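Thread: Modeling a multi-component assembly for a lab meeting

Hi all, long-time lurker, first post. My supervisor asked me to bring a structural picture of a complex we are working on to next week's group meeting, and I have zero experience with this. I have the sequence lines for every component (259 residues in total). Could someone generate the structure of the whole assembly? Inputs are pasted exactly as I received them:
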Amino acid sequence: MPSIQSTIVSRIQEAFQPAELEVTEVSAEDAKYNVRIVSAAFAGVPLIQRHRMVNDLFGEELRSGTIHALGISAKPPPS
Amino acid sequence: MRSLSRGLSLAASGRLVCVSRRSSVTASTALAATYASANAVPCSSLSSSMAASAHRASAAFFHTSRVHRAPSDVSDDLAKDLHDIICHDRLVVFLTGTPSQPRCRFTAQLVDLLDQLGVKYSFFNIMDDEEVCEGLKAYSDWPTYPQVYVDGELLGGFDICKTMMLDGTLTTMLKDKQLI
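Re: Modeling a multi-component assembly
Sure thing. I ran the full set together rather than chain by chain. Output:
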């Protein structure tokens, strides 16, 4: 059983092929994580849609409470 | 279909207006709502909202293999209630707890941010209503709280508000809309 953190890493890598990726476990007890993603996949995408793109990867975990809170920073690489 | 009567009542307190529903849903009516969900038909406003969302996604060249959640995931009655709450004020926030007694860090930080802006808003404590809490996640395709709505449109959660605050777009938007 992979850790939640490694699941987050692998799923984001597969979906967005990020130039930069940082996944932080803010609180194991509260199941809170922060992700900082820099990926060309976010170029031209409105902020709220970027967050939806990331949230959608973890829909089941967020619904079940396996992930309680996911802090998201999602940006395209500097042009 | 059984009619679920949900009236909305308000409790004014200074700049904050708490939006709540007059009666809570009993177990049997909650079950009725669950069954009604299977038969729900999207109304025109939901359809246009979904069309706009699809257009935005298309314009962003965003493709997904997952089926986007349909508005019919929530019953017509619940969708109407959610719409009414969202549109109750120009700025409506759904909090875990209340501004004076936030129940999670992100709600507390959002309240601080809104206070810092000096903006008037209405809030709904999602911990008071499980049906709203779960229904709104599906309705807005947003899995967490707090959630912020401006003129009936989802702005996002605390992350987005914080990002927009830092890059100045939140203040600009609120000024453009004459909310501050």
